[in-house]
Design goal:
alpha/beta, six-stranded mixed beta sheet, 617 residues, nine-stranded mixed beta sheet, single chain
């Protein structure tokens, strides 16, 4: 008997604009001890589905069945459901900062979970909490037990959330994007911890993620969701080697894990439909490259001999990589033939006095003698774990933080020697695009003002000329110029990132620094943004410094890669050399942790054995 089974689950959520069809006739089962993956774009219904399982949608109308160990959770009262949450079903939420209470220490929040379900002493609860914090990789767990959430980095907060979910050893753990904010080495530690729980305690894991490379190497079965519908359900091997649905094939084509040197990623065109006004027939028809007239009717559920299930009119598997555009690749040798250097950094050091302005204290050395050259027209990747100094180095190179020692020369001019007027002019030449597009855009200002700010600040355009320039920039980055007066909240995550890129392009810079620009985006939107960056670079001869913890993305977009560890660059080489022949032990550790190897068994010849009509499915 499966540990969890949903049967014909429908979720309707009332809103001011109408009824959101968050899930429609979704059925699946999760077997004891397996890792079950759920994939799909934002808004596909992944998180809502698991929230319904946890009883966290009080205002939604939910029909169907959710059977946990044979008990229908939808029939339980709120009091009964509280006894299940935490003790029998653990939940790891995507955003740890909003899930952890800012007024309480992380230790008190974990022990509160223990006391809510078990009668144990305070000392025993504290001991268990510290032990779990150590297991998820929190250094100095004894002293950090009394720290507050704001005193941890994003990755550390995610580890705290994981510790809270696992401390009661629940038989089922639901993990909603648990590794999105984590470095590859930490990600590997968390995956190993979950696997250890599965081996030792028979823990079952449901993992929601947009990291298809990760799912391909760890999941037993995968369900692909789109617009509230279950589009495909299959074993991991069958799904990743021979997807049955065009949407699954589109997600795989969009992933930078499918690396081909010099080739563009293939994003899924268009956007998901409104969940209030769903189209008739197949919900994926408008974006499907294999759509036919018959797709205007509800698709049947097709069941194949390898247990793959696909909600599609296709009787043959979807094709992977039907078309890929090959682009010119700038190799290290190419960049060396061009003598122009955009940035030349020598022995750059940065340290902080932890005593603050009120007296001497210990010195924290963040950058320890960085030497770095950045050539015109290239993309230099900067990788390393959280806290190694990547973002700090980027801000020093951009002139936002003065170096304690050493020199930074930009286009032949030393940043340390610039006057106020010269620095104002230099500011036009270097721009930044930040990791969180929503957090870096003022929610109270319209896009016209946000993108037009550089023109206003530097007195470049005014009036109608500024409006025309902003609309031209919007069109260049793939935004509709007619959306000139919209607010950031009215755009998707990928579109907001395009707004940030448009703002960075406003003053025709020489260098753009991208700080984790695609880490929070779905693979299809990620592909669009990465392709846009490449097209703009070729068109405008831009130079990029690209910071990321996703090594598959860095490999795809970068000509050279600099590996940072503890404030130093430990290795610098062209991208392929870093991957094929890493020299430094730390680089080898990063590469080993980032490579997700799927099951290499070739899927059997797939044959259709049953087809359930669309209305019945």
């Amino acid at each position: 008997m499966p540990i969890l089974e949903t049967r014909n689950l429908n979720i309707q959520i009332p809103t001011e604009d109408g009824i959101v069809q968050a899930a429609r006739n979704v059925s699946f089962e999760v077997r004891q001890g397996e890792l079950f993956g759920i994939a799909g774009e934002s808004g596909s219904g992944k998180s809502v589905l698991t929230q319904a399982v946890m009883g966290l949608l009080p205002n939604a109308e939910i029909t169907g069945e959710v059977l946990f160990q044979g008990k229908n959770l939808l029939t339980l009262s709120q009091k009964e459901m509280r006894s299940y949450r935490g003790a029998r079903i653990g939940m790891i939420f995507q955003d740890p900062l909003s899930s952890l209470h800012p007024y309480y220490t992380i230790g008190s929040q974990i022990t509160e979970m223990i006391h809510a379900h078990e009668r144990v002493s305070a000392d025993e609860a504290k001991k268990r909490a510290i032990s779990m914090l150590e297991r998820v990789g929190i250094p100095n767990a004894v002293s950090r037990f009394n720290a507050y959430p704001h005193q941890f980095s994003g990755g550390m907060r995610q580890r705290v959330m994981i510790a809270m979910a696992l401390v009661l050893n629940p038989p089922l753990v639901i993990a909603d994007e648990p590794t999105t904010a984590l470095d590859v080495t930490v990600q590997a530690q968390i995956i190993e911890l979950l696997n250890e729980m599965r081996r030792e305690r028979g823990t079952t894991v449901i993992m929601i993620t947009h990291d298809l490379g990760l799912l391909s190497s760890i999941a037993d079965h995968v369900m692909v969701m789109y617009a509230g519908n279950r589009m495909e359900l299959a074993s991991s091997n069958a799904l990743f080697s021979q997807p049955a649905h065009p949407y699954t094939a589109g997600l795989l084509n969009s992933s930078p894990a499918n690396y081909t040197p010099g080739a563009e990623l293939v994003p899924i065109p268009g956007r998901p439909p409104s969940l209030i006004h769903l189209p008739k027939g197949c919900v994926f028809k408008a974006r499907c490259p294999q759509a036919q007239e018959i797709c205007a009717s509800p698709p049947p559920l097709r069941i194949f001999n390898d247990e793959t299930q696909s909600l599609c009119w296709l009787e043959i598997p979807a094709s992977l990589k039907e078309k890929q555009n090959t682009l010119a690749v700038i190799s290290q040798a190419d960049t060396v033939t061009v003598p122009a250097k955009v940035i030349e950094a020598r022995n750059v050091k940065l340290s902080y006095n932890l005593g603050g302005p009120f007296g001497p204290g210990n010195t924290l050395e963040v950058l320890k003698g960085i030497d770095l050259d950045l050539y015109k027209g290239e993309t230099l990747g900067l990788v390393g774990e959280s806290g190694c100094g990547k973002s700090t180095l980027a801000r020093v190179l951009a002139g936002l933080i003065p170096a304690t020692d050493g020199s930074v020369v930009v286009e032949g001019k030393s940043l340390q020697a610039l006057s106020g007027r010269e620095w104002r002019e230099m500011r036009k030449r270097i721009q930044l695009v930040f990791q969180d597009p929503f957090g870096s855009l003022n929610p109270r200002r319209r896009v016209s003002s946000i993108i037009g700010d550089p023109f206003r600040i530097h007195g470049v355009f005014a009036g109608n000329r500024r409006k025309q320039a902003v609309q031209t920039l919007m069109e260049k980055v793939g935004l509709n110029p007619e959306h000139y007066n919209r607010f950031p909240s009215e755009f998707s995550g990928g579109q907001r990132q395009r707004i940030g890129i448009a703002r960075a392009l406003a003053l025709n810079p020489e260098l753009i620094i991208f700080d984790e620009p695609v880490s929070a985006l779905d693979v299809s939107i990620q592909a669009q943004v990465l392709n846009l960056m490449r097209e703009l670079q070729q068109e405008l001869n831009l130079t990029y410094l690209f910071i990321s913890h996703d090594l598959s993305v860095v490999r795809h977009v970068c000509n050279r890669i600099a590996v940072m560890n503890k404030g130093q660059i430990v290795e610098l080489a062209d991208a392929e050399s870093i991957y094929s022949d890493p020299q430094d032990p730390y680089t080898k550790t990063l590469i080993a942790a980032s490579i997700h190897t799927p099951n290499t068994v070739v899927a059997q010849d797939r044959q259709l054995i049953r087809s359930i009509p669309g209305e019945a499915a």
